Amino acid sequence: MIRSFCVWPLVVAFALTALTSAMGVQQADPTRLTIGRLHYGGGGDWYANPSSLRNLLERIARDTRLPMAGREAEVTPLSPDLHDYPYLYMTGHGNVRFTEEEAEALREYLVSGGFLHADDNYGMDESFRREVKRLFPELELVAIPHTHPVYNILYSLPDGLPKVHEHDGLPAQGLGIFYEGRIVIFYSYQSDLGDGWEDPEVHEDPPPVREAALRMGVNLFTYAVTQRKPG
Predict the structure, then answer these.
(1) Chain-centre distance for alpha carbon 188
(2) Which SUPFAM superfamilies match (predicted)?
């Protein structure tokens, strides 16, 4: 079951607007927030689900009243403006590989207040886990409890990460890397969350499934921005 809180959208919107103003977020259009789609090496299709982030940005704007851009930005771990994006998104079906310089830059982004959402589109799991261990050798990916704010900050998703598509008969899992008490990497596994954000005709998912996926995406972005360190 998914529950929404009628008062929260306005309350969170007010808080987010104040926070983003205080952070001095600078992007291509400094009056608009957006998501950075991570262009990574290794051969995986980092560009998968082309309509997903556009739809999610539209939904974030509607639900939070934040000024959102109409499309995502493409970034790499070495992009000079990487720290300007409060939320990085990566997906794909294939291999993920960071150079030593990229791994160092990405870790610095994360520990200084950034947030990475890695969305396995069925096929990147093994290589992604390998790269996470390079980024945070001292930490482990752990299951995020359903009571965590990431599942409740704007919408309540008491069952945790929505299951959009079926592959191996395994439940959807929301896994995370916690650094100083904050989720710095959220890994949506066995979910195909980004598929649920795509245009309805792409996968023809039932409306309740697509709605749950979009609500999860709004929660993730809201969490990322509210946890952002001023700077």
Answers:
(1) 9
(2) Class I glutamine amidotransferase-like
